Amino acid sequence: MASSTLRVKAKNDEEKRWFFDILDHRRSDVKEFVQTLSMYQWCDETYNIIDSAYQCWNGCRYCYIMAMNRRFRRGTIIDQTFHLHGTKVKKGWRKGDSKLFMFPSSHDIFEDMVDSYIEVARKMIDAGHRVLCVTKPRLSCIDRITRTLMDVKDKILYRFTIGSVDNEVLSFWEPHAPSFEERLDALKLAFERGFETSVSMEPLLEDPARVIERVTPYVTESIWLGYMNYQKGSAEIHRLCQCKIEGVIDIEDTVDDLETLEKRTHDLEVLKTRARELVDRYRDNPKIYFKEGMMTMLVK
């Protein structure tokens, strides 16, 4: 494991210890802990090559980019073609201090642009960096990436988003993303070809036990549990959306309707109780980590 990845992992291990020290009342420095957490919990830097103004084909109902576009009144264009940032694809990379780049961070990887993804990932690696590939994996794309970048597999860490084993649940929240079976096959493929592998259950779309059981044999690095990503100003909306997932709010409500439920503080307290049960259940599992949103909710 390269130094940039080891550095990030050491930070994650320290955050996990600090988190449980606060929960167990061995430490009281909550403010300092929260300030330490950041969006770069997984990496040193992020990189994307698709224009975020265009709606991702996955159509995830909880998409934080869509929420940001609405918040800042940036119109989202629904289009069936990708709009690559040509300058970002063509950009030259100079050698420098090794960093772990989360690539992509605000879009997924699709067949129409997988070759551009490979091109950029290769340039990153040739410049001395490592790539954290975060995706709801399409098997054809992972097959192509792993075959093409086999010679630099020690520079790539895959993190596949698998929030549920139930395809009915996945199709509701992630209407056009791959099935559970396809994501699991992609994980197995990357594992069998000798790549470092990890899984993200952010957002949790069901109790994580079934997913953890199915993916653990093919995970070399970590499994992450987290509630929905959110930005300041929409935190309550996204937590209520998570309440919907947890069954606290009727599944027949639409996501947009959740905005009218901001005063449902009881629902948030139920969610917080369930989150505490979850972290206690998996606290001693060395492969399982918790995203910053979940940890912040529990220590405040």
SSE map:
Elements lengths: L2 H21 L6 H7 L8 E2 L17 H8 L14 H5 L9 E3 L11 H13 L3 E6 L3 H10 L7 E6 L5 H7 L6 H13 L3 E6 L7 H7 L7 E3 L9 H12 L18 H18 L5 E3 L1 H8 L1
Parallel strand pairs: 1-2, 2-3, 3-4, 4-5, 5-6, 6-7
Helix pairs in contact: 6-8, 10-11
Report on this structure.
With 300 residues, the protein is an alpha/beta fold. The protein has one domain (48-269): TIM Barrel, CATH 3.20.20. Helix content is 43%, strand content 10%. It has 12 helices and 7 strands. It has helices spanning 3-23, 30-36, 64-71, 86-90, 114-126, 139-148, 167-173, 180-192, 209-215, 235-246, 265-282, 292-299; strands spanning 45-46, 100-102, 130-135, 156-161, 196-201, 223-225, 288-290. It is globular and about 50 Å long. Residues 71-75, 230-235 and 251-263 have low confidence and may be disordered.
